[in-house]
Amino acid sequence: MTDGQTAGALTDVAGLRVGHAQVTGELALTGTTVVLAPEGGVTAAVDVRGGGPATRETDALDPRNLVERVEALVLTGGSAYGLDAASGVMAWLEERGRGVRIPDREHVVPVVPAAAVFDLGRGGDWRVRPDAATGRAAVEAASASGDGAEVAEGCVGAGVGALIGTMKGGVGTAGTVLAESGITVAALVVANAAGSAVDPLTGVLYGRYYEGRTAHPPVEVHEAAQARLADLREAAGTPPLNTTLVVVATDADLTRAQARKMAGTAHDGIARAVRPVHLMNDGDTVFALATGGCRLGAGPLAINPVLAAAADVVTRAIVRAALAAESVSGPGGVFPSYRDLYGPDSVSEVQ
User: Fold this and answer.
1) Distance linking the first and last C-alpha atoms of the chain
2) Residues 190-223: pLDDT tens digits?
3) Which one of 37, 46, 108, 253 is CB 3.0 to 4.6 Å from 292, fit for a cystine?
4) Reduced to 3 states, what is the DSSP secondary structure of residue 40?
5) Residue 75's beta-bridge partner residues?
6) pLDDT, tens digit, for every residue of 141-178?
7) From its phi and psi, is residue 69 left (phi > 0), alpha (psi between -120 and 50) or beta?
8) Is 312 helix (H, G, I), strand (E, B) or coil?
9) Backbone φ and ψ of 98, nearest 5°
């Protein structure tokens, strides 16, 4: 793991703000999370490795293409239907003149890349999903949050209906400051994977092995938890349709190509915390943001500590998502949390 702080949040990268919004209603279990950049935007890139992604405007982030900076990213529930949440964010940005300015200099087109997790029907009604109003509520929450604000974790925003296998997932965030350079690297995840975050031999969250936290839950607790998860898998009958979404960010002055490299390396952080990953029924997507406030340093290898830290904070953020999640039981199903399966003594503190 990298040196520096051991907790942190995406908002440790100066200028970035995070807002959550949930769809309301008895049969609703979905929502949207928006990452809002400072006015003028930030360098952005994306790396998609899941076999079933639901995305919008990701081609705009290719370093070969026109768009240099983005003002916001959208992570949302609702599968491809939920991508409509980005329309609400676009409208909010347009009203403020934020986006790609066209040649007449009087108008803008906000480019808002978005990705969705599959959570349809988890509240009990397949037709409930985020829309433009949900996206607008999330970006308004981000704008109102203030610089450096705490980021809510667990069953919030796009993580409201998230699952990790048959266990409850959610939103998690983590950050670090590199000791030598002072560069900040942070991540926010929506942990909604088809694979498992729990070692079936021990009950330890895979990601905790990388934190040096390997104390095993009692054998009888682990066996009971595994039996309950197995029963839920059998009751579900069909394989889960999921997706883990990540935003990894830094204040280093990365080029678009370097940001794309960071997005690719950050996928290693998912692979450490969830097994298996990048399946055909996942849509694993990593967005990378660089605000450019800190000099990276000279030479092609100067980025290496940033790349290593990107994977580390993603792993930690997935652990935090699993630990912060709360059990859900309703018309759409029963989704126990890690905390309820293994007990508070096995979870320890969320950090």
Assistant:
1) 14
2) 999 999 999 999 999 999 998 877 788 999 999 9
3) 253
4) coil
5) 33, 115
6) 999 998 999 999 999 999 999 999 999 999 999 999 99
7) beta
8) helix
9) -105, 125
Judged by DSSP in three states, 348 sits in: coil
**CA-to-CA distance for 314 and 130, rounded, in angstroms?**
25
| 67/307: higher pLDDT | 307
What residue type is 102 in one-letter code? I
Q: What amino acid occupies position 328?
A: V
Q: Is the pLDDT of residue 228 over 80?
A: yes
What residue type is 218 in one-letter code? P
Q: How far apart are CA 270 and CA 244, in angstroms?
A: 8
Beta-bridge partner residues of 172: 189
Percent of the chain with pLDDT over 70: 95
Helix count and strand count (H, E) for the chain: 8, 16
**Tokens 């347009």 — which residue?**
94
Contact 274, 149 (CB under 8 A): no
Q: Residue 344's CB: how many other CB atoms inside 10 A?
A: 9
Q: Are 45 and 63 in contact (CB under 8 A)?
A: yes
- Cβ–Cβ < 8 Å for 283, 240: no
**From its phi and psi, is residue 99 left (phi > 0), alpha (psi between -120 and 50) or beta?**
left
Mean pLDDT in the chain? 92
The confidence score (pLDDT) of residue 252 equals 97
Half-sphere exposure of 259 (CA within 13 A, CB side): 28
Q: Measured between alpha carbons, how far is 196 from 60 in angstroms, rounded to an integer?
A: 32
Q: Is the pLDDT of residue 106 over 90?
A: no
Instruction: Report the side by side order of strands in the sheet with 170-177.
Output: 43-48, 285-294, 245-252, 184-191, 170-177
Element (H, E) at 32: strand 31-36
Tokens representing residue 184 in the block: 């900040």
For 51-81, b/e burial (b = at least 16 CB within 10 A) is ebbbbbbbebbeeeeebebbbbbbbbbbbbb
Specify the pTM: 0.94
Closest CA relative to residue 109, chosen from 75, 69, 80 = 69
